[in-house]
């Protein structure tokens, strides 16, 4: 016994679509992993720069539009 050809075609088409979607999800997850690693590296570089600036100027707030800064008041 067999299912009708139209039913078989439909289920095969659905399986192909599901497999394609899983492949795309895998690609996106791989890309996401790479982007997260790049973000962590950039964050580390940013933190290192902040540390360098703090060592040089002390605790400051920097205006990113013009580079001016104000000292952070500590109690």
What does this structure look like?
There is one protein chain. This protein is 71% helix and 8% strand. The chain contains 1 helix and 2 strands; from the N terminus they run αββ. The protein has a two-stranded antiparallel ribbon. The chain is rod-shaped, with a radius of gyration of 27 Å. The termini are far apart.
Summarize this entry quickly.
This protein is mostly helical and 75 residues long.
Summarize the SSE layout with pairings.
Blueprint: H1 5-57, E1 60-62, E2 69-71
Antiparallel strand pairs: 1-2
Number of E strands? 2
Q: From the helix content, strand content and strand pairing, which structural class follows?
A: mainly alpha
Spans of at least 5 consecutive residues whose pLDDT stays below 50 are none
Distance between the termini: 84 Å
Rg estimate, integer Å = 27 Å
How much β-strand is present in the residues? 5-15%
Q: What average pLDDT do the residues reach?
A: 96
Oligomerization status of the protein chains: single chain
Shape: rod-shaped
Largest sheet: 2 strands, antiparallel
